[in-house]
């Protein structure tokens, strides 16, 4: 990342100096007892400063509307560590070719909401801030983002933007965010281990039952440190991301439309819990599965010690060559995905909304989508670019792009409290259902509804 | 403290000046003003960093105040009555008290024992002292992260080493069960803080005059008698200080649990401060978080008043 982005205020410096000189003169004038004269001068200089400020701001917005901003504006931007790779690539590419410079701050994923909340309280939000898409409703409903409806609708490719992201970021008919990075849950499997276990390395599981068979076959190899599968057993966010798709694949939902009632005690949901429960009972899961709080849940697969497991699609670029990709199946087939990732908007308090929009517009354009996202094997945020020169070279990316259209992004104002909170009700349900007796699913589901409906 | 400084300054003035100049009020006033000037920085800091935040928290606790939306008007005493509805409140109070009791007993016993061993100056003792004190130089959050890595079933080295030595057969889970998570955290905290309390107690021990011990020896007192009748009573102020620091610190435990266990497994290690954090930053409800903070503050004041009373030296 370029450091010390060029930052120049050349045109405004002389005015600034002059104002300061006048202010200092005024101060002396007052102490010398020539108060009336002094205050008149103070008013004059304030008026001059005001006019100058107006002229400057008018000039700035005029520039931003044009091709580029003379001298450049420094924009601040926040993102969470989970999608750091993509955000850094965007910012690097943008800074290299524009006068405006974006200064990116990456914040640990677990602390991101707290940080945004604290900054919102003290009115110190950055110009641009991304958000885990499921938390976007919390921010839009509190008016932290600038209304971008007109700007988004004016984009030539407005209808091709990932609609699940746009919908979650819409509040009372206004659009506030655009997709920034797309992170889909898909099954990754280790082709080398498949071959060793006598499985077809070109044929990943198409049902949960097959997923279980494959995982058991690999575990039966008895290789040192190698396990059939792995998941974040103490991580509500991971389980939402990797288990909900199996429920959606059956055609069932996880919440009602308003996101105020939990449907996670349905028969299909119970089948999904039972499946993972079986894997745990048979010892097919890797060491530390039950304790995994989410900080290292994607760590074991790239080490080659896991046969098959649901993973985030954004990790594909950093996976070994022998990684196979298939959609997450339901218990008896079907497929779906959690359309996660980050959406991004402009803070309502930003002083540079035009320059900030310039960056967002650029990030959604053909060049940025293809050369930044697609080139690295990431999912593009526009459906019209789903088939591109890079995806054609890698059938795995085509798989991910295709399942994106069938995916879901859950929308609820209380999503974090119900599902991501490490002490929340969803984790109580899953831990009881997968590691415990499994008898309290209905009762625990009611506890989730109680939080969602609050 | 600051008023003492002013008084001292005045005393100096009166001592240095002849009696007739004592009534020279402009001079006195200037000295007094100077005194206030010296006290001002501290007073301003106390006002800005303690009194103002305290009032803000008080105001929050009586308001409907969300993290993202700001102040939305009065909500008294809704925030306080709502606390009882939280199913995690009583378990977290119970856990915090249990944790405090365990940590205080283990740590202070250990710290006193080590202080007694290393108080005499010798080359080995100064090495030992330094070794025990070094963890105190590490921030608690950094120490927690270090232990999180050591305990991790994926990357932690402890379990494989124990397996290799043949002490355990299966990978050991340090944070997997409620009991294991509690004791793993206690171990971290004892490792991190014992040196600090040892230092305080050691300074106290060195403040006991050697001739008292000599007199006791001449009178034929045994080791246990010396410890029981001389060391412990004379160490009372130091013990009182460590006890108050340790109990208050443990009741306010947060970092270590936030990093190591996140309140898990199965909500078994939630401390009261974690509950405050959760209200504020997971549920975005600053009002409820402030109400809980006020309750904790009142409880801490009461606990400390009781402790100070009980441990005060009888004069």
Instruction: Give the CATH superfamily of the largest domain in chain B.
Output: MetI-like
The DSSP helix count of chain B reads 14
- Rg from Cα of chain B: 26 Å
Evaluate the radius of gyration of chain A: 26 Å
Q: Which properties best describe this structure?
A:
heterodimer; A: D-Maltodextrin-Binding Protein, domain 2; 3 domains; seven-stranded mixed beta sheet; 11 strands; B: 315 residues; mainly alpha
Model description:
The complex is a heterodimer of chains A (454) and B (315). Chain A is built from 17 helices and 11 strands. Chain A has 454 residues and is α+β, with helices and mostly antiparallel strands. Chain A has 3 domains: 13-59; 74-183 and 340-404, 3-Layer(aba) Sandwich (D-Maltodextrin-Binding Protein, domain 2), CATH 3.40.190.10; 184-336 and 412-452, D-Maltodextrin-Binding Protein, domain 2 (3-Layer(aba) Sandwich), CATH 3.40.190. In chain A, strands 1, 2, 3, 6, 7, 8 and 11 form a 7-stranded mixed beta sheet that branches. Chain A has a two-stranded antiparallel sheet with strand order 4-5. Chain A has a two-stranded antiparallel sheet with strand order 9-10. Chain A is globular, with a radius of gyration of 26 Å. Chain B has 2 domains: 2-61, no CATH class; 89-269, MetI-like fold (Orthogonal Bundle), CATH 1.10.3720. Chain B has 14 helices and 2 strands; from the N terminus they run ααββαααααααααααα. Chain B has a two-stranded antiparallel sheet. In chain B, a hairpin with a 3-residue loop joins β1 and β2 (70-74). The radius of gyration of chain B is 26 Å and the shape is flat. The two termini of chain B are 22 Å apart. Mean pLDDT of chain B is 87; it is low at 1-16.
């Amino acid at each position: 990342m370029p450091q010390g982005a060029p930052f120049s205020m050349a045109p405004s410096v002389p005015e600034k100096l002059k104002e300061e000189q006048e202010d200092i003169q005024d101060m002396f004038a007052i102490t010398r007892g020539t108060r009336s004269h002094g205050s008149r001068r103070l008013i004059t200089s304030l008026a001059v400063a005001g006019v100058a400020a107006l002229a400057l701001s008018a000039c700035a917005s005029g520039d931003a509307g044009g091709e580029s901003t003379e001298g450049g504006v420094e924009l601040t931007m926040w993102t969470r560590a989970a999608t750091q790779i993509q955000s850094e690539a965007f910012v690097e590419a943008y800074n290299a070719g524009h006068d405006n410079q974006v200064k990116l701050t990456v914040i640990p994923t677990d602390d991101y909401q707290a940080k945004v909340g604290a900054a919102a309280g003290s009115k110190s939000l950055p110009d641009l801030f991304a958000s885990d898409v499921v938390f976007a409703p919390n921010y839009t409903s509190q008016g932290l983002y600038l209304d971008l409806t007109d700007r988004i609708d004016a984009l030539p490719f407005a209808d091709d933007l990932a609609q699940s992201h746009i919908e979650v970021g819409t509040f009372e008919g206004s659009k506030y965010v655009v997709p920034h990075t797309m992170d889909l849950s898909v099954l990754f499997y280790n082709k080398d281990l498949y071959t060793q276990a006598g499985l077809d390395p070109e044929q990943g599981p198409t049902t949960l039952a097959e997923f279980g068979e494959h995982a058991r076959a690999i575990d039966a190899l008895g290789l040192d440190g190698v396990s059939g599968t792995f998941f974040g057993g103490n991580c509500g966010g991971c389980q939402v991301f990797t288990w909900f798709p199996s429920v959606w694949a059956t055609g069932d939902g996880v919440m009602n439309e308003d996101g105020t009632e939990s449907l996670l005690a349905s028969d299909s949901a119970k089948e999904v819990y039972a499946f993972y429960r079986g894997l745990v009972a048979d010892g097919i899961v890797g060491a530390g599965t039950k304790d995994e709080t989410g900080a290292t849940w994607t760590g074991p697969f790239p080490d080659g010690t896991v046969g098959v497991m649901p993973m985030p699609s954004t990790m594909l670029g950093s996976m070994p060559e022998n990684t196979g990709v298939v959609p997450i199946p339901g218990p008896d087939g079907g497929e779906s995905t959690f359309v996660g990732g980050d959406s991004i908007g402009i803070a309502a308090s930003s002083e540079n909304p035009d320059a900030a929009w310039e960056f967002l517009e650029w990030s959604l354009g053909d060049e940025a989508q293809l050369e930044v996202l697609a080139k690295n094997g990431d999912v593009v945020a526009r459906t019209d670019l789903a088939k591109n020169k890079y995806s054609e070279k890698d059938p795995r990316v085509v798989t991910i792009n295709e399942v994106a259209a069938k995916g879901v992004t859950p929308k609820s104002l209380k999503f974090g409290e119900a599902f991501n909170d490490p002490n929340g009700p969803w984790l109580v349900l899953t831990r009881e259902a997968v590691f415990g007796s499994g008898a309290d699913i209905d009762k625990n589901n009611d506890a989730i509804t109680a939080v969602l409906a609050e | 403290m600051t008023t003492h400084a002013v008084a001292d300054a005045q005393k100096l003035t009166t001592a240095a000046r002849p009696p007739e100049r004592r009534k020279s009020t402009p001079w006195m006033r200037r000295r007094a003003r100077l005194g206030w000037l010296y006290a001002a920085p501290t007073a301003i800091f106390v006002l800005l960093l303690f009194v103002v935040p305290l009032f803000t928290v008080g105001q929050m606790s009586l308001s409907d105040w969300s993290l993202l939306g700001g102040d939305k008007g009065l909500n008294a005493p809704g925030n306080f009555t709502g606390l009882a509805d939280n199913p995690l409140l009583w378990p977290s109070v119970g856990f915090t008290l249990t944790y405090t009791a365990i940590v205080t007993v283990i740590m202070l016993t250990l710290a006193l024992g080590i202080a007694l061993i290393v108080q005499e100056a010798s080359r080995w003792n100064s090495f030992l002292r330094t070794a025990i004190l070094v963890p105190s130089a590490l921030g608690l959050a950094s120490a927690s992260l270090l232990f999180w890595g050591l305990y991790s079933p994926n990357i932690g080295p402890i379990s494989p080493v124990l397996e290799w030595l043949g002490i355990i057969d299966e990978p050991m889970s340090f944070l997997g069960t409620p009991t294991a998570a509690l004791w793993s955290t206690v171990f971290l905290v004892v490792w991190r803080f014992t040196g600090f309390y040892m230092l305080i107690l050691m300074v106290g021990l060195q403040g006991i005059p050697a001739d008292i011990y000599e007199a006791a020896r001449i009178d034929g007192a045994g080791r246990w008698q010396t410890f029981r009748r001389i060391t412990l009573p004379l160490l009372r102020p130091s013990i009182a200080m460590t006890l108050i620091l340790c109990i208050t610190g443990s009741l306010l435990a947060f970092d270590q649990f936030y990093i190591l266990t996140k309140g898990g497994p199965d909500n078994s290690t939630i401390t009261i401060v974690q509950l405050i954090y959760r209200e504020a930053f997971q549920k975005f409800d600053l009002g409820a978080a402030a109400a809980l903070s006020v309750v904790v503050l009142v409880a801490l004041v009461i606990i400390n008043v009781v402790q100070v009373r009980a441990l005060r030296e009888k004069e």
